[in-house]
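Single Protein Entry

Contents — chain, fold
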Amino acid sequence: MVMDFPGLPSRLALVTSTIADRQARGGWSHPVTIIAVTKTHGADAVRAAAAAGLTAVGENRVQEALAKMPEAADAPVEWHLIGSLQRNKVKQVVGRFALVHSIDRAELAEEFVRRIPSGSRQRVLVEVNCGGEAQKAGVEPEALPALLDSLAAMPALAVEGLMTMAPFTDDESVQRSTFRRLRSLRDDAEQRGHRLPHLSMGMSGDYAVAVEEGATMVRLGTILFGERVQ
């Protein structure tokens, strides 16, 4: 069933207003990219996002994204892969996603290097498990410096920043400490010579806190499109 998401413009306006307010509170002035997370929705959600003025959509699963891309080929958006990624999917990712948010180990990065055509580069973020949750993907914070050094030696990868997910909780102090830790890790890495302008952090339930803590990208699904189709 085709859905036009008539509530999207007003929902987006509220999100945009919240971002401006929280940036002011945090003392930030950099642009914040809203990534419209369209997982479980059809290509109509991608087109609705583009019509509302959004320029990036995010997908968690490679196969779902690849099926949706040709259906939404008329939407002027860039595609972000925001979910965990297995090595056997890398060959399907290269050349199709503008930014991969979930590099968390050297072996995965090396698979990208093997698959990226000569002379090309893949933009990536490094996912960090800042919440200390065993079930979450992401490099452990203590291992991040070594991983960043390894990636710096792979010119086919353009490492542009870090990504994290906060624990699923309404406790704002837990959210804030998670996002603040990612920012601190980024600042430490930049002191060591890495240039990492982007912090991808914050989803529908915690994006306001993430923006206040310096997010440059937020990944929003439910707050834009409503509850997901199962």
Summary: The longest strand covers residues 157-163.
